[in-house]
Amino acid sequence: MKKTKFLFCLFDGLRRDFVKSNIMPNLNEFRNEWVDYPNSSSTFPSETRVQVSSFVTGAYCGGSVSDASKEGNFGHGIMANSFYDPILGFDGPLDTSDMAKMEEAKRIYGSLQKTPSLGELLAKENKNYSVITTGKIGNARLLNLNADDLQQRLFSIWGADISSELADYDGIIEKFGKVPKQSFPNNKVSQYATQILLEHFLLDRSVDVQVIWYNEPDLSFHYEGIGSKASLSSLECLDQCFGKIMKWWNAEGRSDGWNVIVCSDHAQISKQKQVSVIDELKCAGFKAGVSIIDDIDVAVKASYSGQITVRDRDPKLVKKIIEFLHAQDWCGLTFTRDGSHGTFSMAEINALSERSPDINYMLRTTEKVNQYGYAGSCYADNPDIPNGGGIHGGLSRIEINNFMTLGGDQMNRQKIFDIPTGIVDILPTIFHGLGIKIPKTAMGRPLKEAFLNGEFEPTWSETNLMASSGHYSQEMCIANVEGIKAPYLRGGRRVS
Ligand SMILES: [Zn+2]
Prior knowledge:
- The structure is a single chain.
- With 496 residues, the protein is α/β, with parallel strands linked by helices.
- The chain has 2 domains: 5-269 and 397-450, Alkaline Phosphatase, subunit A, CATH 3.40.720; 271-396, Gyrase A, domain 2 (2-Layer Sandwich), CATH 3.30.1360.
- Helices cover 26% and strands 23% of the residues.
- The strands form 6 sheets. Strands 7-6-8-1-9-20-2-21 form an 8-stranded mixed beta sheet, with helices on both faces. A 6-stranded mixed beta sheet has the order 11-12-13-16-14-15, covered by helices on one side.
- α2 (48-57) runs parallel beside α5 (137-143), α7 (187-199) packs parallel to α9 and α8 runs antiparallel to α9 (229-253).
- It is globular.
- The structure holds zinc ion.
- The site of zinc ion has 6 residues, from loops.
């Protein structure tokens, strides 16, 4: 019998509205031909390295409402690309791309991702996991933290130190030349990754799950704008790369047992204006900074989707800050550990963990279109992103709607399923396809309905949560799917 395999192809930051015949014809054809999930969502926060961790563990960053009493047991624990946890004793947030801090955090936490990951789980089943990524260092590391111990391949464009030994970075450079320098659009790097996938990694017949993670169109969206000339060039290049992958798949991949899952990790919306939350808090008399030290008792991980941790988790100080935030026009959604004072509980978005901050806040979003006509705008606290540039990390409907399609001889054809799904469902779906046990730590579900002779879709319903305090009110839509404890996130906004 032919061995079942999965190729997971991820286009970072790709919005669904760009997948159409005049922009991405190859990907659009794949989506139309196979199984499409238009209501797929990222996990919270919708930052890349959280999605990476949700992909490799099948879990959200924290626990959900029904599991709140056992909060420590749920979620992968990567609370953001960078997050501040006073337990670590760092002078600022833990940047998951900082190798030295990650080592130190591992020593303190025991394990960086709290739940077993794809590499470990597949190794236990004597299956082979292999990764190519053009993403940042933290992205590469989190795709397989134990690649060397597990004797698996992990190729990162950032060099032999970030790649695993077995990936033989130097051998690849010798064979294919140096990795091109990054630029916007990052087309040369996307083409390079595609070439090594097709001409090197896929030649290894022992691989069961192969990942290729492209860092575009994310980069071009961020720095040049969603719909800009650079971003359209990036999308054209990615589609040509995908066309080459399809050529291989149709010629030999499919008959060799390969199924293909094509996703994005999140979408993006456009930054309208910079707001410095630390400065705003300081002006209001709070002793705010980047870590709790000396006379600083409010640690802020500033971003469009930011986090606040206060000294001794003092509930009175949390309340004061929430009251301040809710009085600001630039403030969007707010979450606390207990859902008090007009905030939602972090548990309601599967983000409650002992590593959680005291407050998760997002800056305000609107549906306003950007200069290229693409909907979704927000205030942001990200000085490196220009006004008009793309951003993500929050919970607006547009930014959390990731692209999600599956194809292959095990899959249905020409189906569109409206049932909510998300990044957390990829691992259970791959395990279902490979016929191996889905770990209890996975919080998603296998998309059985996508498979030939699969089951009917489970029933599902949406719930609109509301919270308010004084003039401030917010709403958050979640979806419950039969048999799944953790709800899917459908999007939220500040109402007034
Ligand atoms: Zn991303």
